[in-house]
Amino acid sequence: xxxFFSILIGIAMAATPLLIAATGELVTEKSxxxxxxxxxxxxxxxxxxxxxxxxxxxxxxxxxAGAAGGMVMAGLFALLTLGLLANQVATGLALTLFGVGLSxxxxxxxxxxxxxxxxxxxxxxxxxxxxxxxxxGFTHWLLYKSRAGLILRSIGENPEAAHAIGYGVRKVRLAAxxxxxxxxxxxxxxxxxxxxxxxAENMTSGRGWIALALVxxxxxxxxxxxxxxxxxxxxxxxxxxxxxxxxSIPSQVLAMLPYLATVxxxxxxxxxxxxxxxxxxxxxxxxxxxxx
Length: 292
Prior knowledge:
The chain is mainly alpha-helical. The protein has a domain at 15-205. It has 13 helices and no strands. The longest helix has 29 residues, at 2-30.
């Protein structure tokens, strides 16, 4: 039973950064904004969280700093895409590249300085793991049980019609983008404060891209994001245990399993174009500027 519970805890730990980042990106995309800069926002959130925590001695301060770092990056993305009407795909890719370089610059003085990990609260799980589950429930309620969620989804489907009846399309999209940025920053904070409590360049290791794929895998549904995140977390833990058991497969191949699974899932999902079109926000990635 101890081994079983340790495996479950390991899966939850591996799934948490994916779950937090994907949940935030889901809200952003539901408003019609496609932000491909999740990887960059996670890296900036990770370095901001680690720097704040190691300086202040508080993991709570570090978590807030990580979320704030992600929000700042998302604010930059919003300025370029919602304000200056830049292409969302190109801007998101540039944001990732910018985040990789900026995080490396900010983290130069913190490389090789580990800090104590976060203390577990319930069943060996720390506060951010529990928060990730609460976040999924809150996001589901926000999108499908609240008036604000109805407005956000209507803007993602038809921003022109929403604007015509008086809703501030760009304001709602800004709020959704900042929410996604805060979640991405918090996901990065989890990596540097809990999962591996230290700072290293590119420590996200492509998790931001997996989070983006999870949103499509989940067909823009929070509960399915939870399922997908724990599925990929399970694959990550499985390859670690296979390496520990001495399976006669090169360790590099085993390390590739989560990313191969991501590609396989996207290929399977893309075969059903009708399902994607029915669930994807109709205006995703499209620039909107009010006529008046």
